[in-house]
Amino acid sequence: MPKLFTYRKPFRLENGQTLPKLELAYNTLGQLNAEASNVIWICHALTANAHPEEWWPGIFDEKNGIDIDRYFVICVNTIGSCYGSTNPQSLHPETKEVYGLNFPKFSIRDISKSLDLLSAHLGIDQIQYLLGGSMGGMQAMEWAILKPEKIKNLILLATSAKHSSWGIALNETQRMAIEADSTFFENKKEAGKKGLEAARAIALVSYRNYRTYQNSQIDQDNTTDHFRASSYQKYQGEKLSRRFDAKAYWYLSKAMDSHNVARNRGGFENALSRIRAKTLVIGIQTDFLFPVEEQEFLDQHIANSVLEIIDSSYGHDGFLIEVEKIKSLLQKHFKL
């Protein structure tokens, strides 16, 4: 079971709205040392939870990965997600009614600010390693800009300084699919279930690529129906709808679209120059959701940065699947 941090003061969001109370579900692995100097903080992606041992299991390895006998690992479920933190299915503390679509919109910067609140609550003044991929990389990057003195080493995987117009278009297409399910607008837990399944199928195409489907979803003699690729899309949609909430997905995709480190900071160069951490930027050659040019941009503008590109047949999802390659890079640059 995740632990729960409750911030009882109003939490002011970047857009000027507030959450009257903020709850963050988080999980830890290992033990914090006396100096609180062995912290590894992992920021999760869109539909993950506070348990990286579940969605990134191979990364924990005492031989060439993260050794939880040496480190204190923490991961926090983001604002808006349905795994224990304050989200659209939460009760408004004043009205005692479910927020639903009255939940305020929030940004990646708001998520990073909430992570910093929790770290202060836990007495953590320095983070030895901050890791994040995709939307998790957005959070990690923002936090390293917000509190540059706090982050010693930064690992950014398959992410960008600003969510692209291409990424926003894909997210909007998914939200259109969710909104096409008329139940989405009801204040019920199962609302938008079929729309979420369609949205996930759309997303999956952007997470993978031509080669992925050619390698795993080829048919022989089918004529008009029962294609493996069709079944796979339906399976993945249903799999997500069994564990995730449509409104949480809708809001989190909006938060992704908000990501822009240059906003109100005088441009990208000025914003990224604030990062003091030794930084490893990892791109995936076949990722067309966050193409390599976006990681090259980060490497060019973060002062103490190195760029590594890995090949993978899994496209964007390679940041979750190519664990052995990622662990090798962690050892190469940080000797974790």
TrEMBL record:
Keywords: Acyltransferase, Amino-acid biosynthesis, Cytoplasm, Methionine biosynthesis, Transferase. Gene3D superfamilies: alpha/beta hydrolase. It is found in: Cytoplasm. Pathway: Amino-acid biosynthesis; L-methionine biosynthesis via de novo pathway; O-acetyl-L-homoserine from L-homoserine: step 1/1. One of its GO terms (molecular function) is homoserine O-acetyltransferase activity. Residues 39-320 form the AB hydrolase-1 domain. GO terms for cellular component: cytoplasm. Its EC number is 2.3.1.31. SUPFAM superfamilies: alpha/beta-Hydrolases. InterPro entries: AB_hydrolase_1, AB_hydrolase_fold, HAT_MetX-like. The active site is at S134, D287, H316. It catalyses: L-homoserine + acetyl-CoA = O-acetyl-L-homoserine + CoA. Substrate binds at R200, D317. GO terms for biological process: homoserine metabolic process; methionine biosynthetic process. It comes from the Bacteria. HAMAP family: MetX_acyltransf (MF_00296). Belongs to the AB hydrolase superfamily. MetX family. Homodimer. Transfers an acetyl group from acetyl-CoA to L-homoserine, forming acetyl-L-homoserine. This is Homoserine O-acetyltransferase.
